[in-house]
TrEMBL record:
It catalyses: 2-dehydro-3-deoxy-D-gluconate + ATP = 2-dehydro-3-deoxy-6-phospho-D-gluconate + ADP + H(+). Residues 7-304 form the Carbohydrate kinase PfkB domain. GO terms for cellular component: cytosol. It is an enzyme of class 2 (transferase). One of its GO terms (biological process) is D-glucuronate catabolic process. SUPFAM superfamilies: Ribokinase-like. Its EC number is 2.7.1.45. One of its GO terms (molecular function) is ATP binding. The lineage of its organism: Bacteria, Pseudomonadati, Pseudomonadota, Alphaproteobacteria, Hyphomicrobiales. This is 2-dehydro-3-deoxygluconokinase. Catalyzes the phosphorylation of 2-keto-3-deoxygluconate (KDG) to produce 2-keto-3-deoxy-6-phosphogluconate (KDPG).
Amino acid sequence: MSQQQIRVASIGECMIEMQCKPDGSITQAFGGDTFNTAAYMARLGAGLGTFVSYVTAIGDDPFSDQMAAFWKEQGVDDHLALRLKGRRAGLYFIRTDANGERRFFYWRGEAAARETFESEGSKDLLEALGTYTSIYLSGISLAVLKRESRERLLERLEELAHAGVAVDFDGNYRPLLWGGIENARAVYERVIGFSTRVLVTIEELEVLGLAQTVAAGIDYFAKKPQLEVVIKDGPGDATLIHGGKVEIVPATKVAKVVDTTAAGDSFSATYVLGRLLGLQPVEAAVRAHVVAGAVVQHHGAIIPEGATPDVFSNEIAQRGQQSATE
């Protein structure tokens, strides 16, 4: 039986990242939750070729040019990124405390990504999503969009989900972007209704009107047997709810946390790619903990390639061997 080609479209906003280092110096890079996930997915699945595309809108300024070049360096395809004349990318600044926890400060009012699905070329962009096997997005992906863009995307995602395309939704909730938790709740419930896999933190259960406990999450998601759910608890264990089962996957122990930026994004990248490669949920979560555990031991969203655990080499090699014999 021929194996299905893996093609992932990650939707969201990549921004200019400014980070204050311990010595007071400031470095500039690029990042954003769904781009971080796309980059780690591309890195972990490098043996699959270029299979991850980033879906967004950027400007025609020099920073946007550098950003697109950076995507390609990370193995992420940019042909679904609209270039809007006279617009620019958003910016965020990170401050990290002594425990590795970070605070974000954003400048995104004029960011091109807000109009991704209502600009010239957006109709073709939405149509192109139908050529992918999996579409990944987050709560931030939806929150940054203007209302018309968001509605167009949601309608298309629901259509694709009913046609058999996997939709992977990471809750990633930022209160300031929504103007009220009720606004977010209505959208989250709608997306969860047609998603294949959902990843949320314990804190994000509040968006759904739930207590911030694993038990509350289990009770809520167990009523949706068609859904596969991962409840993340920061450095703690992950709880999986799928097929009528609840399974706990212990986290990888880390001696010293340097920076938690992109820990959740790298976990999601590993988990979703693991499932697309055919791993069972528990094994995918085990490997996701390993990668996230490596990420928190380095500064910045995208850690050095050599520091990223190669957790899928066997599965990718087996796919290559199978393809060669078909």
